[in-house]
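Good morning,

Both structures are done.
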Amino acid sequence: MAEDEVFVRGVDYVYKFDFTTWGWIHIVLGAIAIIVGAGLISGAGWARFTAIVIAGLSVIANFLWLPYYPWWSVLIIALDVVVIWAVSTWNPRADYR
């Protein structure tokens, strides 16, 4: 059974959670992102706003994860910024002209 220990020790943070808590946070955000992605593909109006909110929450979650896995967190934050930009600037009416 896996232990909830961090292999890289650093400064203790106020928001420190064990790996099980971080895992559930990321699983829930990922499941919601899959549902929102399906909504974006189907053209649902609610999905654009929700995608921006979920990507923003992912930025915050990965910023808090930064002390543990900095390179992975920076990569995911950059991808979230690209998602926010792409969803907010996409004009579906322009695609049909």
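Second structure follows.
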Amino acid sequence: MIRLLFTLSLVNILLVGTFSRSVAQTSLTPSTTWGSWMTGTIQLPAGKRKWGGFAELQARSNGVFNQFFYFDVKSGITYEIDRTLSLMVAGAQVSTYDYKALADGPLNTETRLWEQLTLNQFVSRIKFEHRYRIEQRWFNFRNGTMPYRNRIRYRFNTLLPLNNYTITNKTAFLSIYDEIFVNPIGPVFERNRIYAGVGYQFDNQWILQVGWMNQTNYDAATFDKGIFTPELATGKNNLIIGLTYRLKRKNAAEKLPTQSD
């Protein structure tokens, strides 16, 4: 039964990812090259009173470890109702640049606020995460425009420890997830992410994760002045490196090593 659940989850995620990549490859936009995302996270695990938090820095590059164009800082507070249910309120400041002209300043800065609900399932040694997020986004573009947008995200993540029954000290683990991004105004389906990676929890404090992530953005089909433009999708593969440091805390609740982005 356990093997069946894991196999079905893996097949579902791989099918979504294959669909995303096939659409991207058949779009009018040429295939993109590899990029990289590097993330450093500090976590305060939930203690006896169930409150916790995190802070994070992230940089993204158009190439692998070069042509950096995206920087953000995030922080938030969490409330662990129990080991299967947690709430979060968090925010971020995001800056996007032209990597060819970093000295010209950001093309856009974004202030983001979100509310999040996370449900965890523990089926034998397999861990499932369902993450629901609602985002409020304020933009400030270089040309002076300042639009506001909402976004809804859902991520289904599967984690499997390899050399231990649980993810604890000296544990290697696999992580596979798919995340969809929805714009409630439209176009409704705007982005998909699929990730597969391996991680290692050295001890109660240090966790390293390395993986592959394909992010595909969608432009909805349009019909304007008698001209029909089909749906376009642009996808990009990225090398993901994430390092997490957990602060020591007495009576800390168990926390799955999932990525906060």
